[in-house]
Amino acid sequence: MILHLKNNITQSKAALIANDLNAFHFFSNGVNVIVTESNLKELPVELEGVVEQFWLFDNDIQLASSKYISDKREVQIGNIKIGGNTNKTIVIGGPCSVESKSQILESAKLLVELGLTTLRGGCYKPRTSPYSFQGMGYDGLMLLTEIREEFGLNIITEVRDATHINDVIEHSDIIQVGAKAMYDQGILRACSSIDKPILIKRGFGTTLKEFVQAAEFVLSGGNNNVILCERGIRTFETNTRFTLDLCGVAWLKEHTNLPIILDPSHAMGYAYGVPFLSKACVAMGIDGLLIETHVNPSVAKSDASQQLNHNDFRKLLTSLKPVANSVGYSIV
Ligand code: PEP
Ligand code: MN
User: In this structure, which residue's CA is closest to atom 4 in ligand 1?
Assistant: First the structure.
């Protein structure tokens, strides 16, 4: 159950009420919000005098539910807003991993040339094998902060585990919680107590409900800036790396209030498929795309086969604009 308290209730009183209910409390947009477990099926009588409005749910998708907020939430990324009624599809581009100053510089220049605002690049890579490149770690993060200062780009980078969560929070504009890290509740809780945007990627074996419940961990701490990212799930098919779950995206659009970004690069696993999928995604009316692009994909230290070269990225961006416009969106 979600409760909005009357505005004469102080924040400290609201905290006490939440404590008695063993519930979450946060103060957002001038309102004391309390969230209890979802199997409370009616408003406790003793709360009638303090509650302005309440919502009942039949499962633990509560703050993210379109039954609570029917419009999509707006999330600010630098000076761009996505979600809400903005009808903007943000294209986030950059390499899988930050590999060197010269490499990430080329990516930054490409984005600036194309008028894009947000650069991706992983520093703490959650690799499947311990023997492959694990990312540049803190040094990579420092390269990203130099790039932000020089080019004014927003930075999105991923957190692999709780050991470096504070560094990623401090130095990035959007925190990416990857498909493997999305089950780490230490990470999710750390992300819940800040107000930077958090992009949560769906685990490849994660149901839609589990995915949205990961978002609830962040929302219930009072961080409203959560973005969901569908990046492909594992099916019986092995010719593509994963299977992009567009049905799931339709479900999320209908049942949640969170902006949705799609990642065709990891879903497909091969660069040749990324433009096809990107167009299909944009045609659904989505809040963003996350696309891997590398100045020289053949030498990329991670995910080489799926990264677009810069020319193909340029062509893709041009081809996406009319698709977005045809569904009332614009690419930013
Ligand atoms: C990535 O974005 O490079 C990445 C590792 O993604 P995922 O967590 O979706 O596998
Ligand atoms: Mn990658």
Answer: 178
